[in-house]
Amino acid sequence: KAIALGAAVLEQASQLPGVVSVGLSANGAPLTHNGNTTWIRILGRPWDGGHIDVPEREVTPAWFSTIGAKLASGRFFTESDDSTKGGVAIVNQAFVRKHFNNGEAVGQNIGRVSIKTDPVEIVGVVEDIRQGSLDDEIPPIVYRPFKQNTDTFFNLVARTSQDPGALIPELTAAIRRIDPEILTLDPATMQDRLERSNAAYMHR
């Protein structure tokens, strides 16, 4: 159901005048927070029962290009990365620095903290994306395909060739056309979020 709703939101938003690309992310938009973490481990390594605590974000394939993220190695997600396929993930460069000593991460497997866990293959590495505020250190982050690990709460991001602020009420109206009871929270341009984060940084 969440996948169908996400597809409907993307379709409605992409049809608005001036919209260049759209994407969805669960558990947090850029410049918001580094929370919503999960426990993982690196498969194929000796395991003492401990865990790695990392923020996890579920995103649609176009989410990376919509926010201007750059691929460092491997590939981005595709529409075929769904629940019928093996688990895949993209990690950021901070993850590679910390857990692979700047070595090759693509092709390695991670998994949940369990003796028996389904492998999730790292298929790509992206340059670090600031999920938290400007004064937060960028942590190691794991990104999963939206279709493989869905959530009923998600963020919509849109890239536009027109005034971003003018697009916000149109996006809200487009989403409400799907279902008037859908709740939309804190719509803002990325410049707004940047200024909020910068203000928080300057006053600390």
Q: Largest sheet, described in full?
A: 6 strands, mixed, barrel
The outline comes out as globular
- Spatial strand sequence of the major β-sheet: 2-3-8-5-7-6
Q: What is the first-to-last residue Cα distance? A: 42 Å
Number of strands: 9
As a percent range, the share of helical residues equals 25-40%
Total helical segments: 5
Beta-strand share of residues: 25-35%
Structural class: alpha+beta
Please provide the ordered H/E string of secondary-structure elements.
HEEEHEEHEEEEHH
| Radius of gyration of CA atoms, rounded to a whole number | 17 Å
**What value does the average pLDDT take?**
91
Uncertain spans: 200-204
Can you put this structure into words, describing what you see?
This protein has 204 residues and is an alpha+beta fold. It is 26% helix and 26% strand. A hairpin with a 7-residue loop joins strand 6 (109-112) and strand 7. Helix 1 packs across helix 4.
Give short descriptive properties of this protein:
204 residues, globular, alpha+beta, 26% helix, six-stranded mixed beta barrel, single chain
Could you outline the blueprint of secondary structure elements for this entry?
Elements lengths: L1 H13 L4 E8 L10 E6 L9 E8 L3 H5 L3 E4 L12 E6 H7 L9 E4 L7 E7 L15 E4 L8 E7 L3 H15 L11 H13 L2
Parallel strand pairs: 3-8, 5-7
Antiparallel strand pairs: 1-3, 1-9, 2-3, 2-6, 4-7, 5-8, 6-7
Helix pairs in contact: 1-4
